[in-house]
């Protein structure tokens, strides 16, 4: 008997596509590259299956192999990344460059991806020996770190409940909404601090402009004010 009228049946997910996308995520997490055997173990599949997935991705320049046979993210990903929120990236880049140079901290844009924050674009300071590297595509849990707090602070609690039912609205987000910026330390990486402010993006979920640092002589209030100013500047362009 067919499905009852008015009901819908979810289409089955593509296991092969899912494994391919998961492979890209695994490679993005390890800048030193991964072997076929390591990918197979991470995916929980036979090496022959992992190899076919990697070869397909390689044909599309989404992965490359080094001289030792280790696979790494390929240049094809850069072309895809340019298409992600291009207006936001274009508006943010000069502002991030100015903030990174002024504060001598890595500045970046983070966006919400369900249970994670994902770095969209980042700029390191020009003379920032010892500064932290924040690569595009880097992800961390949404409920840890200033970017997630900042994004959540730009949403009403009712809207957040619709977006993520059952996920708590952090007290830190209420404080960030009042202050205009969010602060965290030791939440993502021990010893690392972050300050972030929300960016209003018309028709989309808010993003966050953030900086990360090990230590700074500047008062956190001064950093927060500068980050919030930069986030407003990006938002005004958008």
Structural class: alpha+beta
How far from one another are the termini? 52 Å
Shape summary = globular
Helix fraction by DSSP (H/I, runs of at least 4): 40-55%
Order of helices and strands: HHHEEHHEEEHHHEEEH
Low-confidence stretches: 1-9
Question: Average pLDDT, to the nearest integer?
Answer: 86
Number of helices: 9
Beta strands, count: 8
What percentage of amino acids are in beta strands? Answer: 15-25%
What integer value in Å does the Rg equal? 20 Å
Main β-sheet, in a few words?
A: 6 strands, antiparallel
Strand order of the largest sheet: 5-4-3-8-7-6
Structural summary, described in words:
Mean pLDDT is 86; it is low at 1-9. The chain is an alpha+beta fold and 238 residues long. The termini are far apart. It has helices spanning 15-29, 36-43, 47-59, 76-82, 86-103, 146-153, 157-163, 171-179, 220-237; strands at residues 63-65, 71-73, 106-113, 116-123, 139-141, 182-185, 193-199, 207-213. The chain is globular and about 55 Å long. Helix 6 crosses helix 8. Strands 5-4-3-8-7-6 form a 6-stranded antiparallel β-sheet, sandwiched between helices. It is 43% helix and 18% strand.
What attributes does this structure have?
238 residues; alpha+beta; 6-stranded antiparallel sheet; two-stranded antiparallel ribbon; 18% strand
List the helices and strands and how they pair.
Layout: H1 15-29, H2 36-43, H3 47-59, E1 63-65, E2 71-73, H4 76-82, H5 86-103, E3 106-113, E4 116-123, E5 139-141, H6 146-153, H7 157-163, H8 171-179, E6 182-185, E7 193-199, E8 207-213, H9 220-237
Antiparallel strand pairs: 1-2, 3-4, 3-8, 4-5, 6-7, 7-8
